[in-house]
Design brief:
Length: about 70
């Protein structure tokens, strides 16, 4: 299993699971990131925070800690 944080730029991955519970999981799901959705990694900042992604046609910025909790294939 790999996380969204470990995904290189320019790659599209599919979400398998969101590890966190409670408000953090709710915040991630409110962005439209749910099981089975495709995420395209557009850009990663030099220090790894934030990670810019495209989900369902929307461009989003994710914190590194949030990206670690998204398991992808």
């Amino acid at each position: 299993m790999k996380t969204l944080k470990a995904t290189p730029c320019g790659q599209t991955v599919k979400v398998v699971k969101i590890e966190n519970k409670g408000p953090i999981k709710r915040r991630i799901m409110d962005m439209g990131i749910t099981k089975g959705v495709d995420i395209f990694v557009r850009k990663v900042a030099p220090l790894g925070d934030p990670i810019e992604v495209t989900v369902r046609g929307y461009e989003l910025s994710l914190r590194k800690a949030d990206a670690e909790s998204i398991i992808v294939e």
